[in-house]
């Protein structure tokens, strides 16, 4: 298997394992709600080792403010 972008491949693996394989999506609205909750956790709460064990939001918003709702 050829890997074009290791970062995308790693993200896709995490997304599948932590979100898609962990939830049943009963409706489109249910899927949107669960995906948004996972996205917020991934970007705003979960520490990422490659950036000093900080969540990515810490680099986007130095004041540690949450991202706006979609």
Structure description:
The chain is mostly helical. The chain has a domain at 26-70. It is 53% helix and 0% strand. It is flat and about 35 Å long.
- Tell me the number of helical segments per DSSP (H or I, 4 or more residues long): 3
The tally of strands reads 0
How far the N terminus sits from the C terminus, by CA atoms, comes to: 35 Å
Would you identify the regions where 5 or more consecutive residues have pLDDT less than 50? none
Task: Report the order of strands and helices.
Answer: HHH
Helical content (DSSP H or I, runs of 4+):
40-55%
Average pLDDT works out at 85
Radius of gyration: 14 Å
Major sheet: size, sense and barrel closure?
none
Shape: flat
Strand content: under 5%
Decide which structural class fits the backbone. Answer: mainly alpha
Which properties best describe this structure?
single chain; 70 residues; mainly alpha; 3 helices
Could you outline the blueprint of secondary structure elements for this entry?
Blueprint (H helix, E strand, L loop, with lengths): L5 H15 L7 H18 L11 H4 L10
Structure summarized in a few sentences:
The chain has 70 residues and is mainly α. Helices cover 53% and strands 0% of the residues. The chain has a domain at 26-70.
């Amino acid at each position: 298997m050829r890997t074009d972008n290791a970062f995308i491949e790693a993200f896709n693996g995490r997304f599948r394992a932590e979100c898609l394989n962990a939830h049943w999506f009963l409706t489109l609205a249910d899927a949107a709600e669960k995906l948004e909750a996972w996205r917020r956790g991934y970007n705003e709460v979960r520490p990422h080792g490659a950036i000093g064990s900080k969540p990515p939001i810490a680099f986007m918003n130095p004041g540690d403010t949450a991202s706006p709702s979609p």
